[in-house]
Design goal:
Blueprint: H1 74-80, H2 93-100, H3 107-115, E1 121-123, H4 131-145, E2 150-153, H5 172-183, E3 191-195, H6 208-228, E4 232-237, H7 246-255, E5 266-269, H8 277-291, E6 297-301, E7 336-340, H9 360-367
Parallel strand pairs: 1-2, 2-3, 3-4, 4-5, 5-6, 6-7
Helix pairs in contact: 3-9, 5-6, 7-8
């Protein structure tokens, strides 16, 4: 990704955050209820990192653009307090590692601070024949526990502008069909949908006609999801505070259907990035102000932003980062609906290992 917010897929498979690719059981990423910043624990010798491989594209860090807070509407207040319980899907790369390494000295920290948290589940492969059942496995699991799953459809054609996270459906007609089948698995309970990271913010590589067609499919996707499950909360890609100016991003979002309550509950930002929560709150409010619409809110990926973005703009598994705020649907912030862990901490951007692979040394460094 040239100026993208997320690093997710490598070699046509799911990576970077919770994944649910192929016919196997989907993987989920951590998310949890609100909590204070984690207190550092004593260092434990860590294994040497995996050798670098192909790097997934990622964003360049640009100047932060804070803006003034905006008041919360009554409908927004009701929505953000609907449920503070997020679902942890029982399959993920970090859980696989925890189960396979009971004697590793890093295990208690990684397990308690990452593996035990709820997180998003990504569906990053175009698989029409299996996607309904795989989505249903996640949403029904959440419903059985009375918890709210977070799912990430990530199969838009032209994904990542042909970069390392390229892939997805062969064309928009196939994508629309895939979306219909995805929607059939949403069930009837509460579910948060993070619709296509980078699909709006990273659309400059498309021609004007291609952008219009993509945005029409995204608007349709939101409508299909909300018609299939009126309790689904659908959020659109707002990039992050170091990318586009709020007015520009809002214009793109409006064309993608994000201002319409028929397709959208608002926007998401900072997916797989490191910008500080305060900067994202200000940026998202500015985007929402420019976007218009009624009762829209924002969700922020706080999985790795505890120390903010690196000053040098490094995006690939940068050192010195920490876990951010724990996932929650009750943020206490006007118009901010949730803090989520969309990118699973410990899954590589491509420097500590192949993109999307789990790096225990990186996870431990983030968590301790």
């Amino acid at each position: 990704m040239v100026a993208a917010a997320s690093v997710v897929v490598a070699a046509g498979t799911v990576s970077g955050v919770i994944s649910a690719s192929g016919p196997d059981v989907p993987e989920a990423r951590p998310v949890s209820s609100a909590s204070p910043r984690l207190v550092p624990l004593p260092a434990v010798p860590s294994a040497s990192p995996s050798p670098s491989t192909t790097v997934s594209a990622s964003p360049s860090v640009r100047p932060k653009r804070p803006s003034a807070p905006a008041p919360r509407s009554s409908s927004q207040a009701k929505k953000t307090t609907a449920s503070a319980r997020l679902y942890r899907h029982p399959a993920s790369r970090v859980l696989d590692w925890v189960r396979a390494h009971p004697d590793d000295p890093r295990r208690p920290v990684i397990e308690s601070r990452i593996a035990d948290q709820p997180a998003a589940v990504w569906f990053a492969d175009w698989s029409p024949d299996t996607v309904t059942a795989r989505v249903r496995a996640v949403t029904s699991g959440g419903a059985a526990e009375g918890r709210v799953p977070v799912v990430v459809p990530y199969a838009i054609p032209g994904r990542d502008c042909g970069g390392h996270s390229e892939g997805g459906a062969p064309d928009l007609d196939a994508y629309d069909e895939w979306i219909d089948r995805f929607a059939a698995g949403l069930g009837g309970g509460e579910v948060v949908v993070i619709l296509e990271p980078d699909s709006v913010a990273q659309a400059d590589c498309l021609s004007a006609g291609e952008r219009a067609e993509r945005f029409a499919s995204l608007a349709r996707a939101g409508r299909v999801f909300k018609e299939a499950n009126p309790r689904a909360r659908v959020y659109y890609d707002a990039g992050h505070s170091g990318w586009h100016a709020p007015a520009k991003q809002a214009d793109l979002l409006r064309r993608a259907g994000a201002a319409s309550s028929a397709s959208s509950d608002g926007v998401f930002s900072n997916v797989s990035n490191f910008h500080g929560t305060a900067d994202e709150i200000a940026y998202d409010r500015a985007v929402l102000d420019a976007l218009g619409g009624t009762g829209l809110g924002a969700v922020i990926d706080t999985s790795r932003n505890g120390n903010g973005a690196p000053a040098d703009g490094e995006w690939c598994d940068p050192a010195g980062r920490t876990l951010g705020r724990a996932p929650t649907l009750s943020t206490g912030e006007a118009r901010i609906d949730a803090y989520l862990w969309v990118k699973l901490p410990g899954e590589s951007d491509g420097c500590m290992g192949a993109p999307g692979t789990f790096s225990p040394s990186y996870a431990y460094d983030l968590a301790r």
